[in-house]
Each structure stands twice: as structure tokens, then as C-alpha cells.
Write a structure and sequence with these properties.
Helix content is 56%, strand content 17%. About 1% of the residues have low confidence. The protein contains 13 helices and 10 strands. It has a 6-stranded mixed β-barrel. It has 2 domains: 183 residues, no CATH class; 130 residues, no CATH class. Strand 6 and strand 7 form a beta hairpin.
């Protein structure tokens, strides 16, 4: 018996029991649709995180005072004052792989304009900080080098701060706001960026010259940190090593001694978040894959029932010359047709469900070709694997015993 005849006989057998065939397919359909949807959600989340980290500056390097502490150990005041202005100037002047660098000092407090007030923090930086953090001036201008040298009381404000201090839609540029009784003139506004992947409002920001915050607000001589940007993401590791060498030399740290600073790159954060997302995606796919396993068991169960119901038919066909391999191929083809048809329907439903999640729930999703192909291959292998044993049993029936079967 050729393949085309075997397929026709299998299709005829399935169409004679349409409802049973559909219910058998249902497990495969749900399994494939679940795998595609879960992988789409996981991959979409991964891409979204990578994009948001890129917006924050994928080649950004953060230098903080004090060595890394574990278990919530409190740092001493000396540890928190280990970064000096000389460290900033040396990184700026002596590095090869750094394209931009800015000191960082900040203070929390209350911003006041007329009768409106808003609790936030003011961050002291240089104009290069905007390039490092991918920030853009929307209206007005950024502060100048002269304003940094003179510790001018000027600032740039983000949209969240503007909305809270100027709820009536006033133009904030040129207005004077107070921060802990210190007046600051708004010379520019920042373009809206929204929330990042960690749920932080990137528009809740006020930037001023670092000298202004350092001298007029905090009255300190040290800086609280340094932000830098590597020339490209690919050489972030080299840039980090270069910064560490400069700081160890400046701080006279001997070989083998613990650093009194910490250097972290955005690449490390990206790797950590990506690995976490990959783990969650695999977990979701495994949970969804259980449906495929259940669907495969359903195929095996129905094929057993089908073999029992058609025992006399099998005996009759074998008595008129059908070979064991013909019986095997017929039942195996039935199992494959069920699984492949269920797989096709599952792919369509899974893709549709992914776009439904994107449109209705506004979740980031990304249907990958590999997930569709993988799901389809898995459901085909499932049909062959779980259909083989019942088909094998059918092919090994004794024709005489089969004809006597009631």
C-alpha cells in the first residue's frame, strides 16, 4: 500500500469521528498556542529591557565610593568620601576608552514654586551627563562651563517636576523655583522619557552644575560618584579596567588590598536582567510544554481506543494481504495528522493570542520564527512518539484472533 492510499484511509477514519479527533487535537492546540504565546511574552520582555537599558546608556559606567558590601553592612563616612574631584579630572584627561565623564552629587528636598511644592532631588553634574544618560534638552539651554565655574544657581527640569510645580501649563523656562530655600532659575527643560524597566520615573529629575550642589546645597568638598560613558559598548570592559587602574593609583591602593570604590557598568545590569528574563521565559515555556505532553498522552489514549474499535477491520485487511507495515503506517499517519493539524491551529491561535496580549494588555511581545518552527516540530514528534506504540500493537495483531474479536 502506497503512502497516498494510507493517508486517504487515515483521513476517512478521522472524518468518521470528527468530534473525537477534534478533542484529541485540543491538547496539542492548547500546548502549541501556549508555548508560542509564552515565548513571545518572554522574548518581548527581553527586547523591551534591552531597549530601555540602551536608552539609559548601554555603555554607561558608574563609579561609587566605598567597596561593595554584602548583607547590608553599613559603610563608614570615610568610605562614602573616597571619590575626589581629582579622580574625575584624571578619568577625564587620562583615559583612552572613555568618551564622556561627569561628576555626580545629589541632595533630596522640597521644590517650591508659588503655592506648589514637590518632593524630589537635585543632581549636580556637567553637560556631558546628558550624553551619558541619553537625555535631551527640549526647551531652553543647558548650563555652560562658566556657570559651572561660578556655581550658578541654574537648573534643568524634567516633565514630572514641571507637571507638579506648574500644573496650569505655564512655561517653566526663566521661572525661579526654590530648593530648601535656595533659589534656582530654570534655564531649560528635558525631553520626556517615561519609566524605565525597573519602574523608575526618568522624568522626575532636576539637574544643576555640580559645583552649585556641592558648595551651595551640600557644603562638601568630595563628590558622591562619577558617571562615564565608554566609546562603544564593545569596549566597556576595557574602559572599566582603565578607570579602576586610575582610581587605585590615585587612592594608593596596594596590590591585593580591597578597593575603596566600586565600578559597575550598564553591561553588567543588562546581562543580569537578560539572564533573568531568559530563565523566566524557559520556565514559562516548560509550563506551557506540559500541555503538549498532556496532548500527546491524549493521542496515545485515543489511538488505543481506535485500535480496539477497529480490531476486526485490522484482521480483515491483514487476511486479504495487508502487511504489518501497512497497518503500522496507517495508524501512525492518523496520529501525525492529528498532531500536525493541531499544531497548525495552535500556531495560528498562539500568534493571535500574542498580538491580543500586545493590543489589549499593552505588554511587550515578540513572536519569534524559531518558536513557531520549534513548536510545530515538537508537536509532530509528539504525534509520532505517542502514536507509535498503539500503531505497533495494531500491526502485530494475529489476523485470526483479530477476526474473532467481538
Amino acid at each position: 500500500m502506497n503512502i497516498s492510499n494510507a493517508i486517504k484511509i487515515s483521513l476517512r477514519a478521522l472524518t468518521n469521528n470528527k468530534m473525537r479527533a477534534f478533542l484529541t487535537m485540543l491538547g496539542i492546540i492548547i500546548g502549541v498556542a501556549s508555548v508560542i504565546t509564552m515565548l513571545a511574552i518572554g522574548q518581548g520582555s527581553k527586547i523591551s529591557i534591552q531597549e530601555q537599558i540602551s536608552e539609559m546608556g548601554s555603555n554607561m559606567i558608574m563609579i561609587r565610593p566605598g567597596a561593595d558590601k554584602m548583607g547590608g553592612v553599613r559603610q563608614s563616612s570615610d568610605d562614602m568620601q573616597s571619590i575626589k574631584l581629582k579622580d574625575y579630572t584624571d578619568i577625564r584627561d587620562k583615559t583612552t576608552y572613555i568618551s564622556a565623564v561627569s561628576p555626580n552629587v545629589s541632595s533630596g528636598g522640597q521644590f517650591i514654586y508659588a503655592t506648589n511644592n514637590y518632593p524630589s532631588s537635585i543632581t549636580g553634574v556637567t553637560p556631558e551627563y546628558l550624553d551619558i544618560r541619553k537625555l535631551t534638552v527640549d526647551e531652553g539651554t543647558c548650563f555652560t562651563e562658566m556657570q559651572i565655574q561660578t556655581s550658578a544657581k541654574v537648573c534643568l527640569v524634567g516633565k514630572t517636576v514641571i507637571d507638579n510645580l506648574f500644573p496650569n501649563g505655564e512655561d517653566p523656562v526663566g521661572k525661579v523655583i526654590r530648593f530648601n530655600k535656595i533659589p534656582f532659575t530654570i534655564i531649560g527643560t528635558l525631553k520626556e522619557k517615561g519609566y524605565n524597566s525597573m519602574g523608575m520615573d526618568q522624568d522626575d529629575i532636576v539637574l544643576a552644575p555640580y559645583t552649585t550642589v556641592q558648595k551651595r546645597v551640600l557644603s562638601i568638598t568630595y563628590i558622591q560618584g562619577i558617571y562615564a560613558s565608554a566609546i562603544s559598548e564593545g569596549i566597556t570592559e576595557k574602559a572599566t579596567a582603565e578607570v579602576e587602574n586610575i582610581l587605585r593609583t590615585n587612592h594608593k591602593i596596594k596590590d591585593g588590598a580591597e578597593d575603596d570604590f566600586s565600578v559597575r557598568s550598564q553591561e553588567e545590569l543588562s546581562t543580569m536582567l537578560t539572564s533573568t528574563t531568559d530563565l523566566m521565559t524557559i520556565l514559562l515555556a516548560c509550563i506551557a510544554g506540559i500541555s503538549l505532553l498532556v496532548g500527546g498522552i491524549g493521542i496515545m489514549n485515543i489511538m488505543y481506543v481506535s485500535v480496539k474499535e477497529r480490531t476486526r477491520e485490522i484482521g480483515l485487511r491483514m487476511s486479504i494481504g495487508a502487511k504489518s507495515r501497512d497497518i503500522l503506517s496507517q495508524f501512525l499517519i492518523e496520529a501525525v495528522i492529528i498532531s500536525v493539524t493541531g499544531g497548525i491551529i495552535g500556531v495560528i491561535l498562539g500568534t493571535g493570542a500574542a498580538f491580543f496580549v500586545k493590543m489589549i494588555l499593552s505588554w511587550p511581545v515578540s513572536v519569534q520564527v524559531y518558536s513557531v518552527v520549534l513548536s510545530f516540530l515538537v508537536c509532530t514528534v509528539t504525534g509520532v512518539f505517542f502514536g507509535w506504540y498503539p500503531a505497533k500493537n495494531a500491526s502485530e495483531l494475529d489476523p485470526i484472533e483479530a477476526l474473532r474479536y467481538e
